[in-house]
Specification:
homodimer; alpha/beta; Rossmann fold; six-stranded parallel β-sheet; 6 strands
Chain lengths: ~260, ~260
């Protein structure tokens, strides 16, 4: 299988790079092929703007949806975006590795999503509006996994921890960005207390990471409800037959 | 009062710029002073990296926490970051205006947070670790408001809508980024169906926006629980006395 590793940390001695290197070694040992997107080394352009469209369709007013659609369908995207999309299309799994900054991805990785997740591909698939998304789409059949390094302790990210439950904080990425495109998303891998982690704890974390990598294609994904599976019969709102009276992000997960 | 408007859209004809202009006109009429951070016009550097630290404390390995702390405390931050922090310190309210991209901020705005929210100021306040946060901190007494333009319909962001409830999706920003620093955060202002919005709908949205601006300093903020208010007595986990057995992001809001 082919696995695309995307990571966002400039320091090669960081835990993020450690996880990327371990993933490469460990997955290659299992016979897989690794593709890299080391965003800082690539000097990835984070900001989506008008220079992303080499053949503007409309000059009067910049609409990202229109220009992204036009650029994608006419092969006039910039070379850097095309290259990343090609890697994604080839990959059987995508692993995003990053330090948690303000409860989300570093800007450089958010900008990788903003620019690579084009209209006609990641959204507006088949130019059919929102017909194919959340469990269906261009990336159906691929797996996705977040690996996150977190300075704080696990208790603060537990179901009643002050920061919010980690999986709820990641929902805009796991559900709204990855599952959106059809990918199966695995539970988030996290290393807590990551700042100045000592050798014994690093070894434990590395073993946990290897186990997750070993099961990359076997593990049960998060059971997000599919848009077109019958759970959202009207205006994409959860059916009254399911968890009536309940709300919160977890209603979108089965079981 | 002084109000800092931070917005992230390159197109001056966009709804984002419309909201920024309306805010300026309307708030000035009420006697307030407006400070702007038009991130695209400013060509804001989105990516936090080693060039942000003009006088590195440690050269062996880049630690953002250490270097941010050192740069903030020794006044060796870059001029662009210092300028934004000065604006923030002067402001009585912060309004972030942006189009919703992949259920979050555009990368350029995430990068504004990543770089401006320095150690010693937005986190690690008074160099006291995590002592002052979530309802306390350097920005105590300031108000904050998100104004978000959303392509999709409101139903999809309702409490049981497929995308997730809007306020839950914004939690990493409202709670984890703004309330974290001590700010009082108002409920998110959203314009749905924003793509190609017609004139009558734009007028309705503009009136709604003016009403929110009028009440900027009067409106009830989201009642996030304070870290040091007694609700998190042990390891920053919500007390068993509160909503026992419940979880999800909403447990961190009173009432």
């Amino acid at each position: 299988m082919k696995i695309l590793l995307v990571y966002a940390q400039p320091e090669s001695k960081s835990l993020t790079h450690h996880l990327a290197r371990e993933a490469e070694i460990y997955l290659q040992k299992q016979g897989h092929t690794i593709i890299h997107s080391d965003l800082y080394s690539m000097e990835w352009k984070a900001v989506m703007d008008e220079t992303d469209y080499m053949d503007r369709q409309f000059h009067e007013r910049l609409s990202f949806i229109q220009e992204s659609s036009h650029a994608y369908s006419t092969n006039t995207q910039t070379a850097d975006v095309e290259r990343e999309q090609k890697k994604l299309k080839e990959a059987d799994a995508l692993i995003l590795i990053f330090p948690l900054w303000w409860y989300g991805m570093p800007a450089i990785m958010k900008g990788w999503i903003d620019r690579v997740w084009a209209y006609g591909l990641a959204y507006g698939y088949k130019n059919a509006g929102n017909s194919y998304r959340y469990g269906d789409g261009a990336f159906l059949g691929k797996r996705a996994l977040l690996a996150v390094n977190i300075g704080g302790p696990e208790s603060e990210y537990s179901p009643r921890g002050i920061n919010g439950n980690l999986e709820d904080l990641m929902f805009p990425i796991t559900h709204g960005t990855l599952f959106y495109t059809g990918m199966e998303v695995l539970p988030t891998f996290a290393i807590y207390n990551s700042v100045g982690i000592d050798k014994p704890d690093l070894e434990i974390a590395t073993s946990r990471w290897q186990l997750r990598l070993e099961n990359l294609f076997k593990e049960q994904p998060i059971l997000f409800r599919k848009q077109n599976g019958g759970d959202y019969p009207d205006r994409h709102v959860l059916s009254d037959d399911i968890l009536l009276g309940k709300s919160g992000l977890s209603v979108h997960i089965k079981g």
